[in-house]
Write a structure and sequence with these properties.
This is Murein DD-endopeptidase MepM/ murein hydrolase activator NlpD. It holds the Pfam family Peptidase_M23. One of its GO terms (molecular function) is metalloendopeptidase activity. Keywords: Hydrolase, Signal. It is built from no helices and ten strands. The chain is mainly beta. It has a single domain, classed as Glucose Permease (Domain IIA). A hairpin with a 2-residue loop joins strand 3 and strand 4. The N and C termini lie far apart (34 Å).
Length: 108
Amino acid sequence: MDLGAPPATIIRSAGAGTVIFAGRVAGHGVVSIEHAGGLRTTYQPLHVDIAAGQTVTTGTPLGTLATGHDGCPAPACLHWGLRRGADYLDPLLLLALGRVRLLPTASP
């Protein structure tokens, strides 16, 4: 999922866990966090302010948003990912917003 935001926005952990990677991949700052239940979140591109091995809670700052995400229509975009094992999941599930439902449009 790509989320547009101003460059230098503080990016925070979506949940409690352990930072399993904090560094650069293909020239971009990346943070990966292992959460309970086998979930893993990833955040990129960042100016990383955290180190692998650190324990985080929900809302812990991970770094600031960097520019340079390909295909981003905003000044900067956070690429936010969620996986369980090899399966990619919708990271919005972590926000417990409920099921998405489409409503019919009103007739003219």
